[in-house]
Specification:
With about 425 residues, the chain is an all-alpha fold. The protein is built from 21 helices and two strands. Helices cover about 75% and strands about 0% of the residues. About 45% of the residues are buried.
Length: about 425
Amino acid sequence: MTLCIIIFALTIVGMIICVITNANIKKIPLYLIVTLLGAILVLACRVLPLEIALKGLWNNSSVNPIKILILFISMTSLSVFLDEVGFFTFLACYTLKKAGISQLKLFFLLFIVVSVLTVFTSNDIIILTFTPFICYFCKRAKLNPLPYLILEFVSANTFSMMLLIGNPTNIYLSLFKNISFGEYLSVMWLPAILGGITAFLVLWLLFKKHLATPISFTYETFKPNNPRVVLGVCHLAICTILLAVEQFKNLEMWLITLAFSVSLFISVIIYKLIKKEPMQDVKLTLKRLPWGLIPFLISMFILVESLNYTGVTQEIAKILPKGVFSYGVISTLSANLLNNIPMSVLFGSIINFASLGKAEIFATIIGSNIGAYLTPIGALAGIMCLNILSTHGEKISFLKFMLYGITIAIPTLLVSLLALFIMV
């Protein structure tokens, strides 16, 4: 047990240091290598036997890391493709045009667009898409980008908890209690909406002085590639509808998303062959998919399995107090020590060993989403956002990010957990 704790602790500390310093080797993030080495060390030292690890990875239960990865990456491919063909850029340009000269109106419209898109795609996709656009627009209009960047990040990581597909942590934790797409939505719609409204009100209070200056900017028009946009939107819409009714058809979610991802790529390739167009957007979509999540999630799964195998998880389960508010607050804090994906992997096992119900699972899901804007360590979305800003000449310090995060996260978390308490 002691060796297991030492390896796990060193891996987590190493991962946090790599995230904070943004260390990489030939453009490969070093935190991926650190977690992979931690998993290899656990297996090499026989802290976790290889056969137990393989059995866990390939088990036939709903909490299967391979199925979860297929589900998330295939769903992400639909969103990334829509971004590549200009759908999200078109919506952003349309939003700016509708705002006119009012920053307050723009602030509100951007909140609505980001929130709605996040519900049906994912927080990571929205942050990857809208962050460069906000930097570009604010530079051209000579506006302070900070209010819009914080707004985008907070709204994306709040409304990502409404649907099961909004965040890989939602998917992983829900499967521990076999929570279906429909059941998930029936509980989480209220915490997401009330949490989102609370977050927006706090953001407005924080930035209302910045938003008083009128916008002076010539808006650009942008037309996306219509046939491919129609293909992408139809695939995403029908896929989401089928996910919502999967519990009535006894279909597994990963099979639905994989089928629609493959269908989209085949449809686009056939369209391009007929039109004799290059396959550029197909190649870029495949290149932008979160392939790094595969070794990261599998490595963290192996590390948590070692904690389960050696009895560490059971001991943690005995210590943690039960209840919605306890698990919501502790998971939020833990996400900023471990990152939200490793935290979710660990807390899923803790809840399982403690024989707790779905309420604690939903509370942990809230913590995994809202915890993302407490510090940049809280989620991969935070790491990505800071990296994108640095490439555009913008900078938000770790301390400033944390101060804004704490101010917004505390009331948002409390309101979301209260709404969850009412629902369950």
